[in-house]
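re: ur question from earlier - yeah i can do the single chain one, its not a big deal. heres the input i used so u can compare w yours
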Amino acid sequence: MNRIYSEYNVSDLTLEEVHDLMQDEQAHYAADYGLEFKELTTLKISQN
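and the output i got, formated as tokens:
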């Protein structure tokens, strides 16, 4: 997730654009670990 902030100047983006970037990042993370996006979301919720 931290990669988003180093690659983009977040202050120049709208909240919607930041949200889209975060969704993309989660999708890549899920793909890397062979998880479906839904499973990843459930995993993140259960960790909190």
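Residues 15-32 form the longest helix (18 residues). not sure if urs matches, ping me
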